[in-house]
Design goal:
The protein is built from nine helices and no strands. By secondary structure, it is mostly helical. Helix 1 packs parallel to helix 7 and helix 2 packs across helix 5.
Amino acid sequence: MISTIVVAAGMFAATNIDDIVVLTVLFLASTRGGPRPWQIVLGQYLGFSTLVAISVVAALGLTVVPDQWVGFLGVIPLAIGVIGLFRGLRKSKDDDDDEAESALKAVGLLGVAGITIENGADNISLYTPVFRTFSPTDTAITIVVFLVLVAAWCALGRAIGTNRRVTEALERIEHWLVPVVFIGLGLFILVESGVVPRLIDVLG
């Protein structure tokens, strides 16, 4: 159970570090007539819950992959991490300004939910293979951890909303921290599922 909680927290952090920047901007905007704090929190929950639901449904639909080989789905987050690591080394900070501008345009609960969903492609691509390899119990635990951390993320976003130096620090480490966590999770899926030794036995 503890390992599942740790993995769930790692997945959440890897796919939602950019949301800290968005939430910070949203809470700043709320002080200038933007979305109200309760709209930001509920919008974040609505958008994130939608991403999780899509991932669970997609995982249940992957029945064409035999259970003994489903661990190979760990290649997906591994590849995302490797590609992201290379892109992060060359990425310009101009994208951060565009992201902040997009967040400022959010109006109300649905606007916040929309931003969360729009930023959630990496969530779906990572959660789907993980949910496919998890047992129903581990999946339930993971979802509970996610929901708790959404609240923590909102609280953190509000707390740092007026601290620009903290926001800039997150933007700097995001480019390498997220890919590294993705790579680690991909390797975890491959190793935990036992698919690599199984492949070696088959080829041997």
